[in-house]
């Protein structure tokens, strides 16, 4: 019997610092409703989808920092989104800033929520870019000030019988992300991102920002025979331009659907999961051809 899963990518436009959480959740629910109406069975939202991308600023006041974090998920402000998932029977992956209850750990996190509105699984961003203090000559990007590196590995969860993994923004540029998820059995990789259009450290590469967005995700999909669905937060957010280009990529490496705006937008594609085996057979029969004994440096050397 043919296997498929209809995927929606819910790109958002900018979420300004002044935006109220309740209004942002309204926007996410509206996107989820559009995704469900289009027949989607799962949706992916951006990285840090509940707030502005606050690591663009150096913030010292702990209360100001914690205002961007979620101490519980779902919490009083986000419960409505989970209720919408259960009502619409569509699960989602949502990026947010996680404050752990037990020891106050801070992670850049994505939760996978099921069609009944309950948690299926959690991923914490492994590749945390930037610095903890502003560095002269570079675009201020202080994720390392606010987040610890993820400590949950690259887990894969069963969602409606399909094996789903997650990755967050900078993770998508690293081949290890896709290979780890693939080796863990992923069939679909859901990604959320916030990517500045301009980097002060490399203005000459500005024209390549979208190419460097799609290139690693298309390569990751192709080389690991997985579907990739990636949601941007796009547009001018608190004075900083973020790229869009949200997309759904087939295991062939082809872009099957792509957002055209820098605003709230839903794209949908029915992912043929049988294509994974076809692509695996054509080029990437791991059991026959992979040579892990020759790849030791990949795991042993930074
Ligand atoms: N949110 C991110 O991880 N952004 C990075 C920036 C720092 C380049 C990215 O890889 O898009």
Structural overview:
- By secondary structure, this protein is α/β, with parallel strands linked by helices.
- Helices cover 26% and strands 26% of the residues.
- The chain has a single domain, classed as Carbon-nitrogen hydrolase (Nitrilase/N-carbamoyl-D-aminoacid amidohydrolase), CATH 3.60.110.
- It is globular.
- It binds 3-methyl-2-ureido-butyric acid.
- The site of 3-methyl-2-ureido-butyric acid has 10 residues, from loops.
β-sheet strand percentage: 25-35%
Q: Please identify the structural class as seen in this structure.
A: alpha/beta
Span between termini: 43 Å
Q: Which molecules are bound in this entry?
A: 3-methyl-2-ureido-butyric acid
Average pLDDT reading = 98
Residues in helix, %: 25-40%
DSSP strand tally: 14
| Biggest β-sheet strands, sense, barrel | 6 strands, mixed
Counting DSSP H or I runs of 4 or more residues, the number of helices is 9
User: How many structural domains?
Assistant: 1
Q: Low-confidence parts, pLDDT < 50 over ≥5 residues?
A: none
- Principal-axis shape equals globular
Strand order of the largest sheet: 5-4-3-2-1-14
**At CATH's second level, what is the architecture?**
4-Layer Sandwich
Key features of this structure:
single chain; 302 residues; alpha/beta; Nitrilase/N-carbamoyl-D-aminoacid amidohydrolase; 6-stranded mixed sheet; 9 helices; 14 strands; 26% helix; globular; binds 3-methyl-2-ureido-butyric acid
């Amino acid at each position: 019997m043919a296997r498929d899963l209809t995927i929606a990518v819910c790109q958002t436009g900018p979420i300004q610092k002044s935006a109220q959480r309740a209004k942002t959740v309204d926007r996410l629910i509206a996107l989820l409703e559009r995704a469900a109406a289009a027949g989607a069975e799962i949706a992916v939202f951006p990285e840090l989808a509940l707030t502005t991308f606050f690591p663009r600023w150096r913030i010292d006041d702990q209360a100001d920092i914690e205002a961007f974090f979620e101490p519980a998920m779902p919490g009083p402000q986000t419960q409505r989104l989970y209720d919408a998932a259960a009502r619409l029977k569509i699960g989602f992956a949502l990026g947010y800033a996680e404050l752990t209850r037990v020891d106050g750990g801070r992670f850049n996190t994505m939760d996978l929520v099921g069609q009944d509105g309950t948690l299926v699984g959690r991923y914490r961003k492994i590749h945390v870019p930037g610095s903890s203090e502003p560095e002269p000559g570079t675009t201020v990007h202080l994720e390392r000030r606010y987040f610890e590196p993820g400590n949950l590995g690259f887990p894969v969860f069963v969602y409606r019988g399909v094996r789903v993994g997650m990755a967050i923004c900078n993770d998508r540029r690293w081949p290890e992300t896709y290979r780890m998820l693939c080796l863990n059995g992923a069939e679909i990789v859901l990604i959320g991102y916030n990517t500045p259009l301009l980097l002060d450290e490399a203005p000459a590469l500005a024209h390549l920002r979208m190419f460097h967005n799609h290139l690693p995700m298309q390569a990751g999909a192709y080389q690991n025979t997985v579907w990739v669905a990636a949601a941007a937060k796009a547009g001018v957010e608190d004075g900083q331009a973020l790229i869009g280009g949200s997309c759904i990529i087939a295991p062939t490496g082809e872009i099957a659907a792509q957002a055209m705006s820098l605003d709230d937008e839903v794209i949908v594609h029915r992912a043929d999961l049988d294509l994974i085996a076809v692509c695996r057979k054509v080029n990437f029969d791991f059991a026959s051809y992979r040579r892990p004994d020759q790849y030791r440096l990949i795991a042993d050397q930074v």
